[in-house]
Write a sequence for this structure.
């Protein structure tokens, strides 16, 4: 059984969540770096990582890792890699993306061209071909360079893993599904506790929470590039992994997950997205202003992505908005609240210092995940699932 090195990119600041997910799947982690985790696994691990990991952006199969500071070194290093173990004679291969940070080689187009030429030479000699028709399965290559160190990988996922397939309509500033799931998993929330998002937008936080509660694997209803790599990943492994995921689903659970937004059109979109995800019956969506947020039960959770004020006109409204959020939090005095935002005066206007604050990159935006912890419910209440 061949063991591969698999590299899983994730959001900066959320590596610990993905690391725990990989351990829970039963795999050995070999390296943790900013924005990526490397672990070892067989062909089945490629299937399971794509289907089950909630916080991963992609699953990359590492073909090689080396240092290079000249194009000649790059060509020779790429040529030395065992491409024939992965790419069949009719395989379609190209460098999908090359990123370079603090490295002597930084021209993406030149790097892509050199890598392709070296691959063609290696595979041409192995298959005794001077020309490849490339009519078969796709084998996209990704190159990541940091301080002259190259990580050369095949992209097993295709579309980024945050594209679960349920979110067709989005709000103005949507949070990625992978980030929403990771932030939920950072909190102590469990499915027997109330969860509310008062700025739910297209419904990502409530939908991801419902999928976690119902044990719906995030990749259950989408396709992956590596499904066609039958030269070393048997189709049977994908069928078995999908069956494993389907056997775990339990949508008959009782949960209290709610999503509010002031925009009625956005609420309609959230309901449609939840329906596509198969969790619409587990979430209550409602048009409601954050100022009207209240709940009779104690010991609930708020997790939300309020406006950041990226436009100048919106920035003027932020002090009043965050002051309102703070007033609502005071009324929910036994609740725990979790807020991701890039607004620097969040604590000032909410009127309370966060118990924990974690730096997160939401795309290219530097943000903080503020954690305002409430008291734990008494044991008897927890047993009653309040």
């Amino acid at each position: 059984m061949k063991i591969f090195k698999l590299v899983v990119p994730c959001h900066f600041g959320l590596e610990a969540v993905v690391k725990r997910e990989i351990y829970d799947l039963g795999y050995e982690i070999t390296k943790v770096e900013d924005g990526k985790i490397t672990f070892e696994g067989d062909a089945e691990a490629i299937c399971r990582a794509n289907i089950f990991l909630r916080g991963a952006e992609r699953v990359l199969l590492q073909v090689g890792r080396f240092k290079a500071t000249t194009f000649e070194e790059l060509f020779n290093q790429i040529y030395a890699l065992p491409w024939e173990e992965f790419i069949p004679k009719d395989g379609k291969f190209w460098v999908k993306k090359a990123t370079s940070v603090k490295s002597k080689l930084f021209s993406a187009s030149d790097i892509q061209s050199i890598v392709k030429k070296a691959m063609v030479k290696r595979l041409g000699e192995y298959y005794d071909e001077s020309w490849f028709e490339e009519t078969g399965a796709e084998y996209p290559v990704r190159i990541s360079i940091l301080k002259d160190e190259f990580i050369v990988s095949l992209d097993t996922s295709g579309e980024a893993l945050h594209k679960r397939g349920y979110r067709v309509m989005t709000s103005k500033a949507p949070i990625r599904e992978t980030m929403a799931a990771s932030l939920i998993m950072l909190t102590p929330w469990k499915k027997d506790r109330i969860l509310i998002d008062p700025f739910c937008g297209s419904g990502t936080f409530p939908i991801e929470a419902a999928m976690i509660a119902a044990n719906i694997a995030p990749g259950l209803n989408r396709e992956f590039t590596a499904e066609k790599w039958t030269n070393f990943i048997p189709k049977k492994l994908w069928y078995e992994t999908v069956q494993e995921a389907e056997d775990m689903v339990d949508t008959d659970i009782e949960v209290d997950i709610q999503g509010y937004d002031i925009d009625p059109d956005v609420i309609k979109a959230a309901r449609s997205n939840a329906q596509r995800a198969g969790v619409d019956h587990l979430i209550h969506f409602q048009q409601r202003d954050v100022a009207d947020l209240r709940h009779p039960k104690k010991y609930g959770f708020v997790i939300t992505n309020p406006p950041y004020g990226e436009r100048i006109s919106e920035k003027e409204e932020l002090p009043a908005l965050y002051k309102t959020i703070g007033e609502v939090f005071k009324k929910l005095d036994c609740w725990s609240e979790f807020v991701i935002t890039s607004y620097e005066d969040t604590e000032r206007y909410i009127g309370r210092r966060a118990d924990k604050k974690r730096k997160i990159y939401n795309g290219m935006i530097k943000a903080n995940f503020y954690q305002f912890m409430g008291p734990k419910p008494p044991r008897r209440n927890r047993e009653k699932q309040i």
